[in-house]
Design goal:
This protein is α/β, with parallel strands linked by helices and about 375 residues long. It is built from eleven helices and 20 strands. It starts with 6 loop residues before the first strand and ends in a 7-residue tail after the last strand. The C terminus is likely disordered.
Length: about 375
């Protein structure tokens, strides 16, 4: 499939907004004319979208079949999300790296959680590898073969004895594991809802926070100074009320806490943005969210941070952060999306890609979507 298509593009390239001619041959972007290229002229050209929190190989119950994982990846591809950061999956999806027609994945192995302190079937307690604090460094090593540079900790979850959110890892244990991961050249991120775990993990040197509804002003200042990434998963936070309601009868303090985190989330994320914390777009697809919703996430981020920032959070800025910069430069792999309207002016354009080009091949045309 790769190398067969030669394409000619002539459109407005984002983020610069300048009109450019590009050619594609052998799966790569070219800035010099290529013979016999098929015409894709017109439109607004964006580096392939990034879903920075997207669990391929996971559904609400845990691991899924290879076919389901493929369908998830194809739904993301149809939405123009061609680079997926998958922070935790119980399914081994490394076979996808050999498939030219599927998005590129940046994996974090499995979620590292303690027994009965996370959603059943997600973390690496499965298969008898129960992780207690004393095992945390060994658990990082266990995930190494299935990591593409990231490790994912579950930072906090409901503690049934306390009846509320509580950190899973004593702070010195977390710090030692983060230091160990850094020594292996890995970055560490964590699922965090509440205040205490966010404070302890940022203090301990973590590289990223997922969800992050509990970040307070002190944490925000430290995250900005250290450039700790925040992926707030806006559309997933809409489930906080149902999480609260489900726990209310047994764990009223937890329900109250979840509701208060939801109520203050926009103020906290706005403060983070204003302080200079780098924020990226992630849908949390694969658990309780369907895949292919990156456009919805960008719309939510844009309400807080404006269109330009939100688009960058799901494209060029996210690519730079994940070490995949310059998607439209000479010799880069041709992963891009073309829109008929200017998404900076009309964000709803994101939901209607005219062409999706992956590794130099047109994989999706408008009105011709793969079943999601």
């Amino acid at each position: 499939m790769i190398g067969e298509q030669r394409l000619h593009l002539d459109g407005i390239v984002l983020p610069t907004g300048e009109r450019r001619e590009l050619w594609i041959a052998d799966g790569l972007v070219r800035t010099e004319p290529v013979r016999d290229a098929a015409d894709l002229t017109g439109g607004w050209i964006m580096p392939g979208l990034v879903d920075a929190h997207c669990h391929v190989g996971l559904d609400a119950h845990g691991a899924v079949s290879a076919q389901q994982a493929e369908d998830q990846a194809l739904a993301d591809r149809a939405a123009g999300a061609l680079l997926l950061r998958s922070p935790g999956s119980p399914t081994d999806t490394r076979w996808m790296d050999d498939r030219d027609d599927l998005p590129r994945l940046i994996r974090a192995g499995r979620h590292i959680a303690r027994p009965k302190r996370y959603i059943r079937g997600y973390g690496d307690e499965v298969g008898g590898d129960e992780v207690e604090p004393a095992d945390l460094i060994a658990a990082v090593d266990t995930q190494l073969p299935r990591s593409d540079g990231w490790i994912k900790l579950v930072g906090d979850w409901i503690d049934r004895d306390l009846g509320d959110l509580a950190p899973l890892w004593p702070v010195e244990v977390a710090r030692a594991a983060i230091d160990h991961a850094h020594g292996l050249g890995l970055k560490v991120t964590a699922h965090v809802f509440g205040e205490q775990a966010a404070a302890e993990l940022v203090e301990a040197g973590i590289d990223g926070i997922e969800h992050g509804t509990g970040i307070t002003d002190d944490m925000i200042a430290m995250m900005a100074e250290r450039q700790v990434s925040l992926v707030p998963t806006m559309i997933q936070l809409e489930n906080f009320e149902s999480f609260a309601a489900a726990g209310e009868a047994k764990f009223p303090s937890y329900a109250r806490h979840m509701r208060s985190l939801y109520a203050t989330r926009l103020d906290r994320f706005t403060a983070a943005y204003e302080a200079g914390v780098p924020i990226y777009a992630g849908t949390d697809a694969g658990g309780y969210q369907p895949h292919g919703r990156i456009a919805d996430e960008v719309v939510e981020l844009a309400r807080l941070f404006g269109n330009e920032y939100a688009l960058g959070a799901a494209s060029w800025r996210a690519r730079r952060w994940l070490g995949r910069p310059d998607a439209l430069a000479e010799g880069s792999p041709a992963d891009l999306v073309i829109y008929a309207e200017d998404p900076r002016k009309d964000l709803t354009a994101l939901a209607r890609p005219q062409h999706v080009v992956l590794r130099g091949t047109v994989v999706e045309h408008q009105h011709h979507h793969h079943r999601a």
